[in-house]
Amino acid sequence: MTIKAWADPAIPGRGAPITRRSQRGAMVAVAFGAALWGVVPLLFLAARAHRDGTVFTGADGPFSADQLQYLAWIRDASRHVLASDLFTFHGGGHVLLHPMFALSGLLVRLGVPIQAAYLVWLPVATAILVVGALGYVRRTLPSGSWQQPAALALALLFATPTLLVASRLPAGAVRAYAQDATGELFTSGELVGYFPAAIAIGLMALYFLALEGVTDSVRWKRAAFVAAALGLLVAWLHPWQGAVVAVATCAFAAWTRRRRPVVRLAIPLAGTAAPLVYFAVLARLDAGWRISAAPGRGLSAAALAAVALAIGPLAVPACAGLRMRPVTTRDRLLWLWPAATLVVYTVGPPYAGRALPGVSIPLAVLAIRGCRRLAPTLAALGVAVLVFPGMVSGANSLRTAYRRPAAGYELTTAQQHLLHRLGAIPAEGGALAPPPLAGAVPAFSGRAVWAGHLTWTPAFYRRERVVQALYGGTLSPAAGQRAVRSTGARFVVSDCSTAARFRDYLPARTEVAAREGCVTLYRLP
Q1: How far apart are the C-alpha atoms of 44 and 303, rounded to whole Å?
Q2: How far is 52 from 88, CA to CA, in rounded Å?
Q3: Is the Cα torsion angle 44, 48, 49, 51 positive or negative in sign?
């Protein structure tokens, strides 16, 4: 028994029919695949830590420092509600109010381990991401054919096959940008550690669905306030996606031109803009946020070429879906979502590459519309080409990251105990620690660290060289002592990899505050 296409004149023909059971099974399989992508890396790292007798830090993303940064905010929020930058001694005040980290901080305050307080968001992020993408696909494509399952697979699991090419490019800007872009475009990849982004993407899809009701529904007030709440959460959780939503809403208002819908759109736009203004004020007034807002590599021809290389396999068939004139609000918003993403990426704030996650959802719908006349077998083959090679390559890249020695995914029990001892000492002051242990100091002790995160530590590379010279024992005793004093640290941590000469760099009257095996905590005079 087949099911009928949705009777909407703006939606293209349904193509070859399939049974309701087949369609539902295909969608469940896609959702299960997305969930597995978030769960399997977590289980792997937890099992490895159990096997090796180490402590899983809670970080499982390809760049573990990001999750350690989230954990640091959670630790600070557990004590002050508002979090601060703990990756430098002069990181500003307690100014960050983030809904996820504040709630996780409350769990920590109630006695929940900090890793669990963050990882509890994995099922929430998975559910919202899948529901948002599924709802968007079902509203923009007809049921009863292969179109909806294929679009959902591309929306959630598109992992560009050009990742295989990017990894073989000569070392340089294009290769670096291409590898970054391919990771950003893999929507389900956000479930590996980046839960704020995953939740924001799912809410984005629901926002655009709600925005449709603002202009088309007689109950526009309810739709406007629902969209405002969704836009506020999107921008508050992950401001890059909030910027995309704001740009798309403004563009839609300009496109509409009718006075009444434009006035209605002011409500969701205001909700979205509020967190963006908040983050902009933080970047101007708080020392820690000024560090993170410093310009990165900037946009260049290499960055644009890399994005074109990464997104091309999905963007080319999506262009075929643009042949239909966008008459309805739904179709206009479908066009504006990827366009707004490109605008934010090209002219947006530092690290605007974070605007790319989620754009595979509208591009998937456009691509399926453009290829709607394909036979189901050819469509399945096309989806497989756009999903599996890139996913295999991405899995290998993640496995390589996990195999890096001292990558920040695990602590020894001695390191964990010593960091807890460091946090229990009543005296104030920050700590100096070797990498990657330095990245875990704020999360597991609640103290600031002199150098620990690329984005949130000022002059990070200069400080990193100083730390490497100190813990590697390559300085003279006098130069080492001057370097230690210049950091302003009150405590110093050494571990098993620290050079024996490091002890000569510590000032006279330095006390051993705690020792766990070869891990030592010093209190400076």
Answers
A1: 33
A2: 32
A3: positive
